[in-house]
Amino acid sequence: MKNKKHIRVFLAAGGSGGHIFPAIALSRELDNKGLDVNFISSKRQLDRTLLSAYKDKSFFLSINPMPYNFNPVKWVVFFCKIFWDIMFALFLIVRFRPNVFVGFGGYSTGAASLGAKLLGIPILIHEQNSETGRANKILSRVAKVIAVSFKDSIELIPKKSARVVYTGNPIRNIMSFNNKKEARSLLGLNSDKYTILIIGGSQGSTFLNRTALAMAKVLNETKQGEIQFIHLTGIKDYESVLESYAENNISAKVFPFLNNIEYAYSACDIAISRSGAAVIFELALYGKPMILVPYPSLKNSQRSNARYFMREGAAILREEKDLSGNILAEDILKIFNNKEISDKMAQSSLFLACPKAAMNLAEEVIKLV
């Protein structure tokens, strides 16, 4: 194998934190092993923000999701953009001459992967979700290796020339901190109260914010003084959610986002969350029971992720259309009032975690060199 200092790897990920966080986790592992890593992402502001620490090693393609319906104008725009994105990807690949290309899905992976294929660069695709996304379904036909986060996913991927391996889902470097009492102190919370974390994904969720507020009002009446909240709202709803907790005299710490997310994971007893792969595997590392509310669109994999965690006993699955503040409060009280249920969910959650996922994936990358 080549000297590791001369091994270059391109990581393509964009469109959501769920795609980008695993790429960052892998980059750290590869960097520790002495490999040179560059990112290809999209021009979306979220992507630029998440990769701001790697701005000198990041390149950005257009925001160009594949249209879902047959609209001639949208498809013409899509193919024009993807043509120029492939040209730019080819330029980058010729310039940097990577030894391996790794795609994580999202806006930018498709065009960049096709550029890598045209120049004969071996491709590894990583699928974060239980069900394979559209881009990764297409790219699985040109990949040498397909790595999956869920063991069950191995059976769902067409087996042609690619080798399918289970690596787990690489997550952010957050496990260096895991102390409930200290986390609550750092967040300004009571050290003895039952603590509920509400988190709606990297951009927040207005529906989840409103429903969780309604739930908090119910619990504040029935369990006054026993429960407190950590609520990550996203930027849009931050002020209104903060005011609502204050007006109803509910004990809560509200943040638009939290850079030190490990404090929230450590501090909470249970989490109410969307079911993107990144957040549920991070919560699993901390062994937290979950109530998962997948994003309602049929065109994403959050529902299948939540079903998997529900089947394994780590989560309660609730659909948006059936959910209210009262139902959410009933779910919380069922777990709050029964330590046996809570402990079983926590154990199941911890069992689903894969703390060596980044290391596993890095080994697969090195094998391709």
From TrEMBL:
Q: Which residues form the Glycosyltransferase family 28 N-terminal domain?
A: 9-147
Q: Which Pfam families match?
A: Glyco_tran_28_C, Glyco_transf_28
Q: Where is the signal peptide?
A: none
Name the CDD domains on file: GT28_MurG
The membrane topology of this protein is: Peripheral membrane protein
Annotated compartments: Cell membrane
So what EC number does this one have? 2.4.1.227
Q: Which GO terms describe its molecular function?
A: UDP-N-acetyl-D-glucosamine:N-acetylmuramoyl-L-alanyl-D-glutamyl-meso-2,6-diaminopimelyl-D-alanyl-D-alanine-diphosphoundecaprenol 4-beta-N-acetylglucosaminlytransferase activity; undecaprenyldiphospho-muramoylpentapeptide beta-N-acetylglucosaminyltransferase activity
Q: What is its main location?
A: membrane
Pathway the protein takes part in: Cell wall biogenesis; peptidoglycan biosynthesis
Q: What class of enzyme is it?
A: transferase
GO BP annotations, alphabetical order: carbohydrate metabolic process; cell division; cell wall organization; peptidoglycan biosynthetic process; regulation of cell shape
Q: Which Gene3D superfamilies match?
A: Glycogen Phosphorylase B
Domain Glycosyl transferase family 28 C-terminal stretches: 195-348
Which family does the similarity line name?
Belongs to the glycosyltransferase 28 family. MurG subfamily.
**Protein task:** Cell wall formation. Catalyzes the transfer of a GlcNAc subunit on undecaprenyl-pyrophosphoryl-MurNAc-pentapeptide (lipid intermediate I) to form undecaprenyl-pyrophosphoryl-MurNAc-(pentapeptide)GlcNAc (lipid intermediate II).
NCBIfam families, A to Z:
murG
Protein name per UniProt: UDP-N-acetylglucosamine--N-acetylmuramyl-(pentapeptide) pyrophosphoryl-undecaprenol N-acetylglucosamine transferase
